C-alpha cells in the first residue's frame, strides 16, 4: 500500500509509460516560465535544476509537495524497508497546468519556511522533464486515524496545540493563509509530531488587513464567508481547524447533508445560512466545547486568530496529563494499517 510520505524521491511530470513529459517552455500561458542554456527551469525568481532549487538566489531549506496516491503508478520496485514500512519507487502520471502551478506555489511557500509544525523538504531538482522532491517522512494523517477511531480529548488538545503553532507561524511570520486545512493535510508520525502539509492553494497576504480574494481549497472545510465569495483572512484557517478537530473528536464530518442528490446545495445552505455545528456538552469538556465554538464563529471579525487560541484554556487543560501522544499515534496507525 502506498502511504503519504513513503516515497522519498518522487519524479514529477512523467507519463504513464515512465518516459519524461517535459514542461512546455516557453509556456504560452506562463510566459515568465523558461529554460536556461544549462537546463534550469525558471519562473520569475525561482530556478530549479540538477543542483537543486533557488529563489532570489537562496537555496531551498523547507518545501513540501503533496502527491496523491491516485496520481502515481507503483513500479513495484522496493528501494528499502524497515521494521514497519517499505519504500517503493513510483512515477507521476500526466499532470495538468493546474497541478503544475500548484507545484510552483508550494515551492515558493516552503522556500522561506522552517518550523517544527510544518512538513519539511530536504531538496528539489529539475532534470529531463522531471522535478524530483525529497520530503520528510511522515507515517500518516489525521484522516487515516479517524477512519478507525476518534481522537480522545486529551490527545486532541496536544495535537491541536501543534497545529496552532504551525498556523500561527504561517500567518504571523510568513503572512500566508493555508486555505485548505482538513484532516488529510495534517500529518502525524510515530514520534507524536503533528505537522501542517499541502500548500498548493496557499496565498500570501499582501496588504495590512490580511485579506485575500481567490476561491480555492476544499469546500467542505471553508468558512461561510469564503463559500459566499467574500474576502477571507488568516482566521479562515481557524474555521477549517475547528471543523477538522471536531471531526477528529466525533469520528465523522460535522455537517451531514440528508440528501445525496442535493449534497452540495444542502452543505452550502447549512454552512452559510444556519448555525454552525457544536460538540455535545455531555460528552466533552466545557473548555473543548468553547474552543470549537470560538473557531466556528460565523462572524469572521469576532473569530480569534491562531496565535490567540494558543492561550485558550482547552490548549492548556491537559498540560499536566502524562498521556503519551506518540504511543497513542503508533497504536492508532497500526490499527489503520490492519483495516
UniProtKB/TrEMBL annotation:
UniProt-listed Enzyme Commission number(s): 2.7.12.2
Keyword Isomerase applies: no
Domain Protein kinase positions: 50-315
Region Disordered: start-end pairs: 1-41
Gene3D superfamilies named among the record's database cross-references: Phosphorylase Kinase, domain 1, Transferase(Phosphotransferase) domain 1
Top EC group: transferase
InterPro entries given in the database record: Kinase-like_dom_sf, Prot_kinase_dom, Ser/Thr_kinase_AS
Biased composition range(s): Basic and acidic residues: 31-41
Gene Ontology molecular-function annotations: ATP binding; MAP kinase kinase activity; protein serine/threonine kinase activity
Recorded catalytic activity of this chain's protein: L-seryl-[protein] + ATP = O-phospho-L-seryl-[protein] + ADP + H(+); L-threonyl-[protein] + ATP = O-phospho-L-threonyl-[protein] + ADP + H(+); L-tyrosyl-[protein] + ATP = O-phospho-L-tyrosyl-[protein] + ADP + H(+)
Pfam families: Pkinase (PF00069)
Keywords, alphabetical: ATP-binding, Kinase, Nucleotide-binding, Serine/threonine-protein kinase, Transferase
Protein family (similarity comment): Belongs to the protein kinase superfamily. STE Ser/Thr protein kinase family. MAP kinase kinase subfamily.
PANTHER family: DUAL SPECIFICITY MITOGEN-ACTIVATED PROTEIN KINASE KINASE 5, DUAL SPECIFICITY MITOGEN-ACTIVATED PROTEIN KINASE KINASE 5-RELATED
Protein name, as recorded: mitogen-activated protein kinase kinase
Organism, scientific name: Acanthamoeba castellanii (strain ATCC 30010 / Neff)
Amino acid at each position: 500500500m502506498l502511504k503519504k510520505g513513503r516515497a522519498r524521491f518522487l519524479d514529477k511530470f512523467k507519463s504513464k509509460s515512465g518516459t519524461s513529459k517535459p514542461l512546455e517552455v516557453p509556456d504560452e500561458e506562463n510566459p515568465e516560465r523558461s529554460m536556461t542554456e544549462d537546463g534550469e527551469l525558471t519562473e520569475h525568481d525561482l530556478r530549479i535544476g540538477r543542483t537543486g532549487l533557488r529563489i532570489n538566489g537562496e537555496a531551498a531549506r523547507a518545501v513540501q509537495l503533496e502527491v496523491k496516491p491516485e496520481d502515481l503508478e507503483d513500479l513495484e520496485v522496493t528501494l528499502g524497508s524497515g521494521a514497519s514500512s517499505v519504500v517503493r519507487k513510483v512515477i507521476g502520471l500526466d499532470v495538468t497546468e493546474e497541478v503544475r502551478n500548484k507545484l510552483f506555489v508550494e515551492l515558493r511557500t516552503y522556500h522561506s519556511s522552517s518550523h517544527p509544525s510544518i512538513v519539511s523538504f530536504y531538496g528539489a531538482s529539475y532534470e529531463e522533464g522531471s522535478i524530483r522532491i525529497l520530503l520528510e517522512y511522515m507515517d500518516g494523517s489525521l484522516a487515516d486515524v479517524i477512519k478507525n477511531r476518534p481522537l480522545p480529548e486529551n490527545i486532541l488538545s496536544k495535537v491541536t496545540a501543534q497545529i496552532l503553532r504551525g498556523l500561527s507561524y504561517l500567518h504571523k511570520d510568513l503572512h500566508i493563509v493555508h486555505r485548505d486545512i482538513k484532516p488529510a493535510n495534517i500529518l502525524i508520525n510515530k514520534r507524536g509530531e503533528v505537522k501542517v502539509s499541502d500548500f498548493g492553494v496557499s496565498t500570501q497576504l499582501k496588504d495590512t488587513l490580511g485579506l485575500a480574494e481567490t476561491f480555492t481549497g476544499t469546500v467542505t472545510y471553508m468558512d461561510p464567508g469564503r463559500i459566499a465569495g467574500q474576502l477571507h483572512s488568516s482566521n479562515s484557517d481557524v474555521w477549517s481547524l475547528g471543523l477538522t478537530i471536531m471531526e477528529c473528536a466525533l469520528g465523522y464530518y460535522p455537517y451531514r447533508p440528508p440528501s445525496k442528490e442535493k449534497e452540495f446545495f444542502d452543505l452550502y445552505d447549512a454552512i452559510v445560512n444556519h448555525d454552525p455545528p457544536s460538540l455535545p456538552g455531555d460528552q466533552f469538556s466545557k473548555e473543548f466545547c468553547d474552543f470549537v465554538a470560538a473557531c466556528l464563529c460565523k462572524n469572521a471579525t469576532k473569530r480569534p486568530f491562531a496565535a490567540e487560541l494558543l492561550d485558550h484554556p482547552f490548549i492548556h487543560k491537559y498540560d499536566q496529563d502524562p498521556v503519551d501522544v506518540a504511543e497513542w499515534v503508533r497504536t492508532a496507525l497500526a490499527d489503520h494499517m490492519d483495516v
